[in-house]
Each structure stands twice: as C-alpha cells, then as structure tokens.
Amino acid sequence: MTPEFRLAPLRVEDAEALSAFEAASRDWFEQRVPPRPDAYFDPVALAVILQGMLDGAEAEQARFFLVRAPDGTILGRVNLTGITEGPGGWQAEVGYRIGPDQAGRGLARAALGAALHLAREIGIDRLEARVARQHAASIRVLEANGFVPTGRALQDAELHGQPLPLLHYQRDL
C-alpha cells in the first residue's frame, strides 16, 4: 500500500531535516546514482546550497519539492529543473529519489504522478528524465507515469569510477 504523502515546496529551513534524510539514505542512494557533494551532509552548508537554489539566478528555472509523510517526515524529493521554453512549449527535467524505507511501496510512482500534476499547473508542456540503464525500478516508475524512451543518446554518468549508462525518457503533458 502506498504511504500517505504530500509534496511540499523545499525551503531553506528544511536544511537540517534534509541533511539528515540524505545522510541516513546515503549508502543506499550511492549504490544507484552518483554521490551528492559532502556539503549535503552538513546542515549549515546545505542551507547555503538551498538558499542559492531557491533565490539564485536560476531559481525561476526550477521547482524543488520534498515528499513528506503526514507527520512531516521527509520520505524523498522531486525536482523540476531546467524549466525553459522551447519549440514545443515549456519543458523541464524531472528527478526524484525516495528513501530506502519506502522503496517498493509505490511512493515513487505516486510522488512522480503528483509532480506531473504540479508541472501542468505551472504551464510545463513536456517533462524529460534521465535514468540509469540498470535501474529497473526507476524505469518502471517512469513508464507507469506515461514516460516513453526517446532513444536519444546521453553521455554516461560515472558511478564509483565506472561508466553509468543513461537512458532518456520524456512525457508530454
């Protein structure tokens, strides 16, 4: 059963709780995706990063959300970044991460679905996503939300010194 949640806009005041979430989930995330900078695990440094993300020069091109339980506990994140106007309308890249305690419970699928609704509300016409080729669970989440592979070639990321092949997905809203 999918846990109850809400998407809440990220705030600088969330730095301490977000840093704790990232630290508690660090080993699990880093098995699948490139690591966060060390500053993400220091609440004071993370507050500075968040301030820049939320108020900096590119703030209008992104929306950041926390996936929160009814009691306020952080369960994950969903980000809409690179919001730009292109030939087909407004587009953005979506990224998400759900903590290991919630894996396999449908939360990523539901949180991405909620993010699709928010993206439509702010006028985004198409979302794109990059996913590691071997991350079957994340691919299922994208496909369950109507994303389709584009076949577009992407430069590999790097994970633990090894190439991490990426796939490109998109969904028209």
TrEMBL record:
Task: Please give the organism.
Answer: Limimaricola variabilis
**Gene3D superfamilies from the entry?**
3.40.630.30
Single annotated GO MF: protein-N-terminal-alanine acetyltransferase activity
Family of this protein: Belongs to the acetyltransferase family. RimJ subfamily.
Q: Report the EC code(s) recorded for this entry.
A: 2.3.1.267
Q: Secretion signal: which residues?
A: none
Keyword set for this entry? Acyltransferase, Transferase
Q: Which ranges carry the N-acetyltransferase domain?
A: 5-171
The molecule here is called Ribosomal-protein-alanine N-acetyltransferase
Q: Domain of life of the organism in this record?
A: Bacteria
* Pfam family for this entry, one: Acetyltransf_3
